[in-house]
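QA checklist item 7 of 12: single-chain prediction sanity check.
[x] sequence parsed
[x] length recorded as 386
[x] structure emitted
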Amino acid sequence: MADFLSGEEQQAEQQEERSLKAQIEDQEYYTASQKELVWQRFKKHRLALFGASIVFLFYFTAIFAEFIIPYRIFERDRQYVHAPPQRVRFIDDQGQFHLRPFVYPLSTERDSRTFELVFTEDKSEKNFLYFFVETEESYSLMRFFEVNTKLFGSENGRIFLFGTDSLGRDLFSRTVYASRISVSIGLIGVFVSFILGCIFGGISGYFGGKIDVLIQRVIEFLISIPRIPLWMALSASIPQDWGPLQVYMAITIILSLVGWGGLARVVRGKLLELREEDYVTAAKIAGARESTIIVSHLLPGFMSYLIVNLTLAIPGMILGETALSFLGLGLRPPVVSWGTLLQASQNFRTVARYPWLMFPGIFVVTFVLCINFMGDGLRDAADPYK
């Protein structure tokens, strides 16, 4: 009987603890700030969390690209022109398991009919992968630190995880390094278009009148022009003698000038709705300037939407740069971006014979999908009270 009563007392204590915990959670929910509520709902969106983690991995890789890539991006090896990707293994052909991963080295021979190099795996040897390998030459990491260590490498042979290109350059190293240009051009371009959209949309929606009519006609003119021909025309105007950095900034500005119209129209519509609210009238009576009212009072009223729009606009910028570079109108070699790497896959015969040249395209698709997943999660979490 004493044991039975103690069991009932334990159940009552557990129910009381659960009830107290639920009350605390409810209290935290109703007293949480907007940011905390958005974060709570965003954490429940598993696909968005997965996308955010992959996006973070891409940017982390872009920042520390010199440390991650095993070879320099312009390093050539004529013995391995269009070498296929090497498969990383733990089990050899005899069925023996190895704790350290390895690849079989590639042996080359010349085809007697086509005179092309034919690559076969030499299964008599193993090239083991080692992590934190010291290199003979030091390199600049993030332009601040001189180091001579790579993330991985082999002590007795070459390792080509993604194969090589037509000049014998490691495609994995070039693809990883190219992410620095491709993902950063999305951030910079979206930031510039975001500023332009908020400024011109805010002026148009708050002041109205002739300024509103002028800005809206300019936006309608930009939106009515087909995107690809407009990008091609603006990119073609870039001088051929410009350096890589100048071309990079020019492409960023071009993408930004084209992409701000949609956001400006949305900002205008929101400001037309909010400019008659009581708190705006109170700010005017208090003597606040128009710029202060727009930036400090009106724009924060729908900042969650602006953040979502900012997130979802990044894929468009990246795809725009990739398309222009693929067509030869964007970034030009020796600049390494996903678009310039995909130029090698313009020929269908080349892709059919060397399909690994399409690996940069997989990076583009993966990054764009993960950005969209993250944007969907932010959109669902932007209004936590629904």
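[x] summary fact logged: The radius of gyration is 28 Å.
[ ] second reviewer sign-off
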